[in-house]
Each structure stands twice: as C-alpha cells, then as structure tokens.
Design a protein that fits this description.
Elements: H1 3-33, E1 46-52, H2 54-57, E2 71-77, H3 83-98, E3 106-112, H4 119-125, E4 130-133, H5 135-144, E5 154-157, E6 163-167, H6 173-186
Helix pairs in contact: 3-6
Length: about 190
C-alpha cells in the first residue's frame, strides 16, 4: 500500500472511533464535572428527604390504617378551622376532583387540633374527607417540613406510607395536581 492510502485508512478508522467514543467522552465529562446541568425543576411541591414512614415512627397513630394502598393528601391545622382552613379544605377537595379518573387513588385527610371541626359543614361540603386528631403525627409532619417553607400546607403520603412531598399553602391547585398526576403516572402502586 502506498503511504497516501495508509494515511487515508488510518484517517477513516480515526473518524469511526471518534464518532463512537466522542459522544461518550463528552457525556462522561458532563456527568462528572457537573457542567451543563439544567437549572429548571419539574415539580412544584417540595420533596421531603430523607423519606420517612410516619406509621413506623408512630405505631400508635391511626395514619397507618388509612388508605390501604391509596395516596393520602393531608392538610394539618392545629388551630380552629377559620376561613383559611376552609379554603385549604376546598383546595384539597378540588385538587382531588381535578385528578379525574385517578381521583379514586387519593384520599383526603384533615388533621385537626383539639377543637372539633364543624361536622355539619364537613359532611355537606367535604363528603369523604377523613378527619383525625393526632398531635404526635401533626408534630412529626411539621418537623419534617423545613423552616423556610410556609406552615399550613399539604403533605402527600404514598401508598406504602412514606411521606414524600410538601406543598406550600399558597400553591396553585393546578400545580399541585400536576405533581400528583406525575407521581400517579410513575407509581406502580396505589
């Protein structure tokens, strides 16, 4: 073979190797250097890490017996249920309805303080809402939420009993529903 032909063959092999290993090298660089990571986020709620299971931490709590394979959307309010509390209950009711055919996979829970809620109001406006008084559970949930997040929001528990997400009280219900729908689509349980 002539020198020009040998050079041409080597060049072709180099191009083939570069086409194969080039993207792999660039991807490895990007992965280990942290370069070019997207800054946007896909969720509106806050993932609560590390994941805990409230029923395991508080075995005497009734939260472990609720839902049996359903997702739980919990609103916790230790004070008397005033207008902001009623608005929050309305938000979780409407959010569940916005799930459409998946609304049967989500159970709404109102974790209230020592003052009993208006049972007539709840029966008329919020049929199917589970009401609980469980101070240790309320304290655990509020400790799990970081201090920088507003109090009075919504907690999401998966069908295995794991506390996975917190939604701030001022969240747009459509955004909360987007997160819940996304989790329901990815979930192989509940």
């Amino acid at each position: 073979m002539t020198k020009n032909k040998t050079t041409w063959v080597h060049f072709q092999i180099f191009v083939i190797v570069a086409i194969f290993f080039g993207p792999l090298a660039v991807a490895t660089y990007m992965y280990y250097s942290g370069a070019f990571q997207p800054q946007g986020r896909t969720n509106y709620g806050t993932l609560l890490e590390p994941i805990i299971n409230p029923a395991e931490i508080l075995p005497e709590s009734s939260i472990g017996t609720l839902g049996d394979g359903l997702w739980l959307l919990i609103y916790s309010n230790a004070a008397e249920c005033t207008s902001s509390c009623k608005d929050a209950l309305y938000t979780i009711r409407q959010s569940r309805k916005m799930l459409g055919q998946d609304m049967g996979r989500l159970l709404r829970v109102f974790l209230h303080g020592d003052s009993s809620p208006d049972t007539v109001f709840l029966a008329y406006e919020h049929a199917g809402l589970i009401t609980l008084t469980d101070k240790p559970l309320s304290e655990l949930l509020n400790k799990k939420k970081t201090a920088k997040l507003s109090a009075g929001g919504y907690f999401l528990i998966d069908p295995l009993g794991n506390l996975v997400m917190y939604f701030q009280p001022e969240i747009d219900p459509r955004e909360m529903v987007k997160d819940i729908k996304h989790l329901l689509e990815l979930s192989r349980i509940g």
